[in-house]
Amino acid sequence: MASLSALAFTMRLLRGRWFMLYGSFLIMSAAGATSIFAVYSKDIKARLGYTQEQLNTVGFFMDLGSNVGIHAGLIAEVTPPWVILSIGAIMNLGGYLMLYLSVAGRFVSEAPLWLVCLYIFVGANSQIFAHTGALVNSVRSFPGSRGAILGLLKGWIGLSAAIFSQLYLPFCADRSSDTQRLILLVAFLPAAVSMVFVCTIRVIPAPQQPVAACREIRAFRCLLYMSLGLAIYLMVAIILQKGVHFNSTEYGLSAGIVLVMLLLPLVIVLREEAAAALINDTSETTSNSQQALTVDVATGELTTAPEAATAGMAKKPASAVVRTQSSLWPTPVPRGQDHNILQAMVSVDMLLLLAATALGVGGMLTAVYNIGQIRESLGYPQRSIATFVSLVSIWSYLGRVTLGFGIDTVLVRRHNLTCPLLMFVVLLLAVPGHLLVAFGVPGSLYPASMVIGFCYGATQPLILAIIPELFGLKYYSTLSNFGPTVCPVGTYLLNVRAAGRMYDKEAARQRVGNDMAGKVATCIGVRCFRESFLVIAVATAAAAAMAAVLAWRTWEFYAAGKTTMGEDNGGVVGEV
Q: Closest Cα to residue 479, out of 73, 127, 68, 63?
């Protein structure tokens, strides 16, 4: 009997809501490989003989692939999650494996630029499928904790680059300048993780008992503390690795500690699934003798299930009407109600959000993708590249979890610190980070990496929170991928056209002056990125101004408490 009960609990665990969330954590932790592009970009540039503008073109197509995800959202609307995850795994393996073979020179002829761009586009676009499968199904399964879910899941993406750095170092300790194996790791690891959890990720209805909701909040706090512990360890590890020479064995030990810390959330999963089983058994024994109690979010009162249902219908007749009248035509829809794609596209609020995202996030991504070349131009040592990438990754994680959890706190709601207003503050904070890069003060790249990483991470949950708050939750799978689609516009203008061209112009001037014609363009000095990052600072300030306009336009809407993030929205949560 004991063995049968243990087997039953194991099957319940593997099919449970919390194990599904743990699988989403691991998928997201392996699905942020674009952030580590700066580590192996120098190999692409050197082995394929690219100029900085050509390398930035490759980076642009990577950014295009990692942000254009409307098709993934549309597929997710009509297919089960395992289809999304399987497509992503195949694309990831195919795209990055072909990139590795090209950089390693395994083909008879050198791959042309357009083909390398295609490889990295396919590989990066696979991450959209992983994000959509993991994030959307987790939001649907935990509708009462969307801010925490967005912060945690996006936070794990932020840690992805630092995790990859620790895992590949044991294989490259004696050849720190050779990053081809990192590309191979990026090809196999995310695909393998997605396939392991391909049957686990799905929508699992949340329990209705109030005690389950209280436990849910405490569990998310524990998961937050565990992820913070991993971030702190990664920070300590990169500081030690920067100051002390590690051999392969020591790097392997560090990687082993990271893997153990990735397994720690299973403790919370086991605890919560055991508690959920007990709560369900208790509720079944009492279901015939009393009605289930629910909490009214607006009043804080306990009501019976029929009363709550009646109250919910009475409080939100307008949203029900909107859903029945929804059509494909872009007819005006009030803020907070369900918008389809066309209705969202013609909204002034969406246009402001997209413009601020394109310029603000596009500028930050330019810094992230060029951190390797910035390091080289300012004279930092070669092995510091992993340090800078890890700093960006860890502080990106801190930005994601801080804002993800912050938008649900009482302090934020009490002072009406709306998501658009927080977006304005974050974008404004990024401007000094860009100026630190532009002026190249000795040692300033370390704080610049932290500031830019934090601000980039903070924008991610804010964008994902603003979209359902203003445009509803019914089409969240598609609209959540629609927002980031404009990021490549900003990176093309600021990364390829501005940073790439200005870098090559300065590199050409130095090459002529030093009689180095014909060699790969390498620029040294503060002037390499000064002008381009001054342009990026101005563009980011303009993005902050657009976010301020959006905050002003939506102030009364938020003050009236009409957002969908903290409430049921008349049944929309159940339909997402």
A: 73
